[in-house]
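Researcher: I'm comparing several assemblies side by side, and this is the next one on my list. It has 744 residues spread over two chains. Same procedure as the others: predict the full complex and return the structure.
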Amino acid sequence: MLLLARICENILPLAYCAAFAAYAIAFFRRDDAAGRWRRPALVTALVLHMALIYAQTMLHGHCLVYTPLEMLTLISFTVTLTYLIVELWSGERGTGMFFTGLALVLQTISSTFSSPLAGGSANPVLLNDAVGLHISAALIGYTAFSISAVYGVLYLMLYHQIRSNHFGTFYRRLPSLQLLERMSEKSSIVGVIFLAIAIVIGIVYLPGILPNFSYADPKLFVSIAVWGIYVAALCAKYIARVDGRKVVILSLVGFVGTIVSMTLINLLASGFHRFQ
Amino acid sequence: MNIHAIGTSHKHASLELRERVSFSDSELGEALDALREEFASEAAVVSTCNRTEIYLVPRDESFAPETLRTWLSRWKGVEIPRNNLFTLHAAGAARHLFQVSAGIDSQVIGDIQIIGQVRTAYQIARRHGAVGKILDRLFATALHTGKRVKSETEIFTGAVSISYVAVELARKIFYPIANKSTLVVGAGDAGELAARNLRDQGVRNITITNRTDDRARELMGRLGFGTWMPLADLPSRLHEFDIVIVSTGSPTYLITYADARRAAARRQGEPQLIVDISMPRNVDPLINTIPSIFCKDLNDLTSVVEANVEKRRAELPRAEMIIADELSKFAAWCDLLPVTPVIAQLKSRGEEIARAELEKNRNRFNPDDFEQVERLVASVVRKLIGIPMRHLLDTGSDAGHAQAKAEYVRMLFNLNGDAGPDADPDIEADADAAARSEAGPEANAGANAGANAGEDTGHQSEEEEPNA
């Protein structure tokens, strides 16, 4: 199992790199061969990723949620899986380069700084059902925000090209503005719902489960703040009827805020959200 | 490769002459029959608004292209000057058809309609039994070439007419475009073309307005769809439309900044596209500063057209490389043509001898053993025949050498007797397949190219434009 984990961990960034390269070449050059290899490369990366998750779970006897690096690999996996489902469902492959690029970055960081043996022994708290649900909901929520951010960035790029009359590669290859806006918005809605579930479970059930639970935990504050920004963006869209570009910018502010604050908290602060 | 092509196109003749020598679909069948009756063993005619081209394989080796020019003049009842026609032979004819199919011989480089038009010509000729082995392969390869150029280059991408750029822009903003409401201001040619292009994209809700109401109604009559709106209502109803295309001869702004501002407020952040293709401008350019409105004028769109035309031109060398590649495969296939009937005869002769010997000795074996002996003999015959077959297929690029080899094998195995090439169509098909596999895996692609290209070009892709 250790060997499998080591192999997968080392090969996985290369597999994501291959998928990213295939999508990028097809995006920029309309290359037929790259076009044919896009999906097989993506599926190969996903299969390897599943093998890694399985091997590490078997090695440590718990799911990969101990450390931020483990969360990164899980988010990378869920982003890729979600994109594959969207691609199969909509037939739209123009955005694959950006999702595989995101997965490549996340997985490379995870593979570079973690090792298969770095899991340690399982904290019994993590075996609790409520904690499992809390973590899963948070994971889905943040993955949805990541996907929303990718669509948001693409929206702004296309918007800028149309506004400035620079009808380049992005203009030719990307789907329409309204579709990108809709995808970003729907992902935000999914993120808001799941993060709300994670927050509610955290506030209601975790004080009874975690001995050192504190309402002053910075992650709790950040999660609520991020959730608030996304809710504000959705309200701006549906109630105040603000135009799509402003809504997308507001959502991106939420995403950047999430990344920056979570990174700072993990580096500087300590709290009950550390399980090692 | 005894293929001849004769014809005329926008490069050789005036529109008037092109009109006079073009063939309607209903006329084609009769013309193909006449061609075959007089001098062709195979024939096909590609006839579009920009070209009329006849491809044929003559019955007689000494066929002169002049005969075809005379025939065309006689058939169409019009004197066609020599310099208004082109005549091509062998690889030149094949290359020309591949270039036509790849859209690089069109008036507008990358005219997507041409692939469909070549396919139609091929289908009509097939339906009339005018296509034999050579033209079948030629047209299948031409369609395959068109498909490759379409998928491997940017020749067919990017709009190259102002009205289509406007429609493409609308498709890049709205989703789905079909249920968007559109207003066409102006009943001139540009407005009509834009309305037709939008309709082709599935837009159903089209309103037309014009300074003179009669012309707007006339345009609706010509289009067969749309609703009418008085021009005076434009400022108050501007917010109702997602896409507004303005093309009139008005000397003043028909849509002012204040109108657009009011409309944007009433649309509550919903995007709106206003395209002004009038000269002088009919839409205040300041409108482009409103975040939810995309306002484009003739200058913006012309730069897109020019960039797209340039981009298509830049792709020509890549398209030519694909054509050269397909042409060499087609030539290799043609070189093998003389040996295919010999291979069929050889196979047939071997099987015939084996069958006769087996029948003679049938009583010497019980039924089970006989089956095994049958299999053994078949295997020996296959291996024995395989040796000369491989030599026959290894002709290089010298068609004369292939012919000589074929004759030698024919003499060696006494194949000029009863077992002719048409004795067993299955055997000939086997030999043909063997020849294809010897020529490489790509040679087989052409055989299926017709169907493939058909699937691929039946609908216009997202980036295509009906620029006939």
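Model: For your comparison table: The beta strands of chain B are 4-9, 40-47, 51-58, 86-89, 182-185, 206-209, 227-228, 243-246, 272-276, 293-297.
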